[in-house]
TrEMBL record:
It comes from the Bacteria. SUPFAM superfamilies: Globin-like. GO terms for molecular function: heme binding; metal ion binding; oxygen binding; oxygen carrier activity. Belongs to the truncated hemoglobin family. Group II subfamily. This is Globin. CDD domains: TrHb2_PhHbO-like_O (cd14773). InterPro entries: GlbO/GLB3-like (IPR044203), Globin-like_sf (IPR009050), Globin/Proto (IPR012292), Hemoglobin_trunc (IPR001486). The keyword Transmembrane does not apply. It comes from Martelella endophytica. Keywords: Heme, Iron, Metal-binding, Transport. The keyword Iron applies.
């Protein structure tokens, strides 16, 4: 009996092009949705650097090449985000943008169902104020 080959989420969603679309759409939504204004307010005026780092992080997070680590070292996400005041509003708005971007760029509902729960857990972990 032949064993099924396992592929990463990175490969399953379509690789670098899909992660690029997801990251771009995520930051477009953050930049334009009125209901994401608190989350947007804690980011720099230009989102280009944030988008690039997020794309690199997401690439490795989903099982692709460890681009973020190669460029920036260990993610230490909570430490790196500590200067930004992340409360429930910012967290929930970030999740809204991510969820919507994921729905718009990853058509397979089963893949979204695998990706979303750990992302939600991560967002709660990033919260640093009540």
């Amino acid at each position: 009996m032949e064993q099924a080959e396992e592929i990463s989420l990175f490969e399953a969603i379509g690789g670098a092009d899909s992660v690029e679309r997801l990251s771009r759409r995520f930051y477009e939504l953050m930049d334009t949705l009125p209901e994401a204004r608190h989350c947007r307010a804690i980011h720099p005026a230009s989102l280009a650097g944030s988008e690039a780092k997020f794309r690199d992080y997401l690439t490795g997070y989903l099982g692709g090449p460890p681009v973020y680590i190669e460029k920036h070292g260990h993610p230490r996400l909570r430490m790196r985000h500590m200067p930004a005041p992340i409360g429930p509003e910012e967290r929930d708005e970030w999740l809204l943008c991510f969820r919507r971007a994921l729905e718009e760029t990853v058509p397979d509902i089963r893949l979204r169902a695998v990706i979303m729960p750990p992302i939600e857990k991560l967002a709660y972990h990033m919260q640093n104020r009540a």
